[in-house]
Amino acid sequence: MKKYIKILLIAILAVGSTACSDWLTLAPEDGVTREEFWQTKEHVNSAVIGCYSALLNGPVEKMFLWGELRADMVDNGLMIRSDFSQVIDGEISASNPIVDWGSFYSVINNCNTVLKFAPDVQKKDGTFSDKMLKEYEAEALTLRAMMYFYLVRSFKDVPLVLNASVTDDQNYSIAKTPGTEILDSLVRDLKIASANAPLSYGGNNAKNKSRITAYTAKTLLADIYLWQEKYAECNALCQEVIGSGKYSMIYVDKSPLPITVGGVNVDTVTVPNESDAEKMFIQSYVEGASVESIFEIPFTTQKQNTFYGILSPSYTYLKSKDEVVEGGIFPDTRWTGAGRAATDIRGADCSYKVGVIWKYVGTNRSSATRLSTNYTAPWIVYKYADVLLMKAEALNQLGLQASGEAAQTYYREAAATMDIVRSARNAVKTNEYDYSAPEISGITLEKSILAERAREFAFEGKRWYDVLRYAKRNNYGGTNLQYLTELAISSASPDKQASLQAKYRDPKHNSHYWPIYDTEIETNKELKQNEFYAK
After folding, report:
1. Pick from 128, 172, 255, 477: CA 20 to 30 A from residue 158's CA?
2. Residue 310 belongs to domain spanning
3. Residue 33 domain-assigned?
């Protein structure tokens, strides 16, 4: 963890303005002391914006890399980066800068600073209401919880720092706190945040998507409940977000395409309207702030995302693993007739093109690529499909814990909830999604939901965490570990697959998490290396 010996503060040049663009071009005011800064509610607002600004300086790139490099959908590109390649092959070491968590703790410290100093501003600014203070605190609590949730899922046990680093006489050597205890503390914080955060920021759609709302806090809390295997709580929160009516899937018109064999109609598939599919791509991955978005981190031409140096055709350090994505994640086209194809609109020309991760590279679904100065795709943290598929997963797990007709009721609702996403994306119908049988298999449905998440969140930093969540369920009960060992077959190179599977089978399962960066171990004498890597 970095030493924050002095915090000059987070005084933002654009004081008083809170549109999403305002926290994309932020700069501290040099020479302003803490005593001069924390005087007005505008100062608190600026400090909160500074918490968002810190997300741009490292966390977004790590959110992508931590969620994808260890999974099975990305591969080395035309150019090789050893830090990427080592992780892809399962050869992870504490010296690899990929595991540096410093930028997450920078955001955490900014949030801690707001929570420490904002209450005192009320004594100096009579216009700073209790409601306003609670809303700002809710934003800080939610952003801090988001950072810790990434850290716990990635490292398991990490230092829990809840005090701002503001002086040089503080103790910066802090031992790890068990991840389970950290998650419990996040649950408490997010219950407060979801009660106090704004429901919306009025008619400012961009701000509603790029600043924390009560529904962001609820969605994050539902995600934590899913990780904790608290399925009833997860389902209830998801239903609250769904019931708000504030979010929906982007509509894509579809037309029927009869399938005839020997002049006899044997089936009918649907063909998506290409202009609607184009609209979905542009609204979600180019413009941002779509009706589906719950919380996203926006970028502009003045503050671009980091993907040009990683994913652009000019560099291509990482590309889509086409043999996995085309051969397994997205089923083959079911039928093509009269020049029209029944395709899942999230596949080719949306998530990927051959050898390219297209979501962050394309300007549309055609062959147009972004200029180097136009890498402005937002980083989508949560969208409506997250809520629907979390609900489907929670319902399915509740069904697996039940029996008889009660279980089937859960399964049917889970399948129907998942099908809202599938229908919107024109997902290709296959036998595994045929729920017309008298009884639904909960295990089959479990696997189907994981496959659907792979399609919906392709290259959005969720794949590794999804598979790990499935594997660790019920304390790695039954055959759950197979979710990881099967992932190893499709993620690592052939000569590394056996060793990676052996690591994943380690009975203590410590290899499922990152090592602590060696610089942190050297700096913080209270830190102990994760056991698997200490060997």
Report:
1. 477
2. 215-443
3. yes
Helices and strands (DSSP H and E) totals, the chain: 21, 10
What pLDDT does 33 receive?
A: 55
Is residue 181 within 8 A of residue 162, CB to CB? The reply is no
Which H or E run includes 519? helix 518-523
The one-letter amino acid at 317: Y
Q: What is the pLDDT of residue 209?
A: 97
Note whether 431 and 295 are same-domain residues: yes
- Number of domains into which the chain is organized: 2
Task: Tell me which amino acid residue 390 is.
Answer: M
pLDDT attached to residue 34:
65
pLDDT at 27: 37
Distance CA 373, CA 376 (A): 8
End-to-end, the C-alpha distance of the chain in Å comes to: 22
- Both tokens of 185, joined, read 């503390």
Spell out, as residue ranges, where the chain has pLDDT lower than 70.
1-35, 167-169, 338, 431-436
pLDDT of residue 315: 82
Phi, psi of 380 (to 5 degrees): -85, 115
Final residue of a domain: which of 385, 412, 443? 443
Token pair of 409 as six digits: 């009721």
pLDDT score of 232: 98
CB distance 473 to 226 below 8 Å: no
The CA-atom distances, in angstroms, between 248 and each of 239, 253, 291, 355, 421 are: 13, 15, 6, 31, 10
Strand duo 356-357 + 352-353: pairing: antiparallel
The answer as to whether 406 is a domain residue is yes
CA atoms within 13 A on the CB side of 36: 10
